[in-house]
Amino acid sequence: MSAEKAIVHHQRGKPTPPDLSLVEKRESSHFGFRRWKNRCAHAIFLLSTMVGVFVLGALLWDVVEEGWAWVTPDFFNNFASRLPEQAGIKAAFWGTLWVIGLTIPLTFILGIGTAIYLEEYARKNRFTRFIQLNISNLAGVPSIVFGILGLTLFVRLAGLGKTVVAGSLTMTLLILPIVIVAAREAISSVPNNLRFASFAMGATQWQTIRRVVLPYSMPGILTGVILALSRAIGETAPLLMIGAVSFIAFTPGYALDAFTVMPIQIYNWVSQPQAEFQHLAAAGILILLAMLLSMNAFAVFLRNRFARKDR
Amino acid sequence: MKNHSLATLGRFRRKRTLGRVWESMIPKFLLACALVSVLTTLGIVGTLLKETISFFTKVSLFDYITGTKWTALFNEAQQSFGVLPLIAGTLLVTGIAALVAIPIGLASAIYLSEYANPKVRKVVKPILEVLAGVPTIVYGFFALTFITPLLRTILPDMGVFNAVSAGIVVGIMIIPLIASLSEDAMSAVPRSIREAAYAMGCTKLEVALKVVVPAALSGIIASFVLGLSRAIGETMIVTIAAGATPRMTLDPTDSIQTMTSFIVQAATGDHSFGSIAYGAIYAVGMTLFIFTLLMNLLAQYISRRFKEEY
């Protein structure tokens, strides 16, 4: 429609090549239909994209509406209870901190170690390709299968029982593929020139990695590790499998204590029939989401802060 | 690999000091780290195989695969191990999730890659990332306290636990995955091809649907397969919202049970180690593992085999 107007307008102007406008005139009604289709499609695509935004809004609204009033100081200071008014998230909160605290060093060493090996030391042979294929397939294994592994290997076979350590080891294996992929990406983005310069100064390969490659890629690695940890904080199924129980009236004192974590406490509340427990679940989710959002924000901050530097 | 020649150069005329020993220990230690993930795979396959095999010494494999009645947690006399109801439940939820996630995910990818101006992208992409980072337990809560009541205002006779609510929310969960992987595939299509189509007088829609999507098709299909594999393995949403009633049904308003939610139910109940019900955890776990592994391998195969090189 507007195309027709444009053509009319165009013809009033002086130097139009006549043949072209004739062609366009003949085509114009069809062209208008195509433009109209394009505009409709634009609206549909935009709406589809907005579905994600709306859902996030609805989800947050749902949780805040149900749980906001229940986030009180008592909620942090009380342990789980049969009575909703006295129930709190203290054991689960500290349990989450314990599990994550033990998971951090393990994933750091294993994840970055694997990434350095694959990027800096490994030769391009069948064995290396096998390790890579293996890692990318591990990333697709459902988390509950990792739970079965943890239950069999750590809880039963290694005799660790239903403890913080067993939970952390399971979590480490679960998020290891994510950390490895992120760390490899960060390490491979280090320009080779820097490595060559370091070698030219007589540094050994390990010195180069430790003094040049790692400092340069650390922001990228940290971002990946934080995002992986925020996944670990929200994971429920594997810890449910290894038997983290929800009625625990103490905070873990050392690594071989029994424990519960926030998602499991939330799951327990969600599965209670009384409405009050739904509010408790929502309050727990608010705390969980606050933790996750601050971690994600920190990761984004790291990425932006260091991305500007010298590139 | 890339620094190998330089490393061997460094070996020239250096004495065997503590530093040298250290230097030669490092790769071995790092290799050991890399082997952890190989051992993880072996551990998963090993534990699943061992317990599954001992499970099938008590239950016939044929009955397991073809049986249509799953009552693994009943007492011994009434136990029946036909996995088909669990598979049917899983596929029903996955199918609903696909109906939600594939159109919306693909449309979002097209919008972000072809239509959106940089400002909109800068706002929308982080929101999708946040959506991808929401824990599944939160989605489960959302399904139970928001989507189910919403659906029950339309269909009042529907039960609290039903496949459709869980399926919709699982679909929502995988939208960001499908959108971002498809968008990656579309942005890899070179600009020159788009410009050529525009020069021929194509509208944006025609460029998107007739040029970009076909060119990125392998990556897009791979993203669908990966998303569905994620939906099959999803646990908490279906455990919370879909119920615990294994049955063969195509009615999405029914309460069903998936493979994953059976595993949770069996592991959180008190079944002694070594009982048949406990063995069923591993058999179902193995089935789930095979399903997702095959789908992941399929996705890798599609994106490698049908990749368009520019």
From TrEMBL, chain A:
The keyword Cell membrane applies. GO terms for biological process: phosphate ion transmembrane transport. InterPro entries: MetI-like, MetI-like_sf, Phosphate_PstA. Residues 93-298 form the ABC transmembrane type-1 domain. One of its GO terms (cellular component) is plasma membrane. It comes from the Bacteria. Coiled coil: none annotated. It is a multi-pass membrane protein. The chain crosses the membrane at residues 43-61, 91-118, 138-158, 164-183, 280-302. GO terms for molecular function: phosphate transmembrane transporter activity. Pfam families: BPD_transp_1. Its main location: membrane. It is found in: Cell membrane. Keywords: Cell membrane, Membrane, Transmembrane, Transmembrane helix, Transport. PANTHER family: PHOSPHATE TRANSPORT SYSTEM PERMEASE PROTEIN PSTA, PHOSPHATE TRANSPORT SYSTEM PERMEASE PROTEIN PSTA-RELATED. Belongs to the binding-protein-dependent transport system permease family. CysTW subfamily. NCBIfam families: 3a0107s02c. This is Phosphate transport system permease protein PstA. It comes from Marininema mesophilum.
TrEMBL record, chain B:
One of its GO terms (cellular component) is plasma membrane. Keywords: Cell membrane, Membrane, Phosphate transport, Transmembrane, Transmembrane helix, Transport. It comes from Marininema mesophilum. It holds the Pfam family BPD_transp_1. The keyword Membrane applies. Coiled coil: none annotated. Part of the binding-protein-dependent transport system for phosphate; probably responsible for the translocation of the substrate across the membrane. InterPro entries: MetI-like, MetI-like_sf, Phosphate_PstC. The chain crosses the membrane at residues 83-106, 127-147, 159-181, 207-228, 276-299. Belongs to the binding-protein-dependent transport system permease family. CysTW subfamily. It is found in: Cell membrane; Membrane. Residues 87-299 form the ABC transmembrane type-1 domain. CDD domains: TM_PBP2. It is a multi-pass membrane protein. SUPFAM superfamilies: MetI-like. It comes from the Bacteria. GO terms for biological process: phosphate ion transport. GO terms for molecular function: phosphate transmembrane transporter activity. This is Phosphate transport system permease protein. The keyword Signal does not apply.
